[in-house]
Amino acid sequence: MAKVKKGDLVGKVGNTGQFTDPYLHLEIKKDGENVNPSDIIDFSSLSKK
Known about the structure:
The N and C termini lie far apart (32 Å). The protein is built from no helices and two strands. The chain has strands at residues 28-30, 33-35. By secondary structure, it is an all-beta fold. The chain has one domain (1-49). 0% of the residues lie in helices and 12% in strands.
């Protein structure tokens, strides 16, 4: 398990061959419990196609 701080790169979106569109699986845990990434990360700047 890794600890990250604001500004750290945690992943890149790409094609794996299993999906038709770019895909990123992101899981965040705090104190062993799953946390909704939207509660922590501001996704509003990401473009949606």
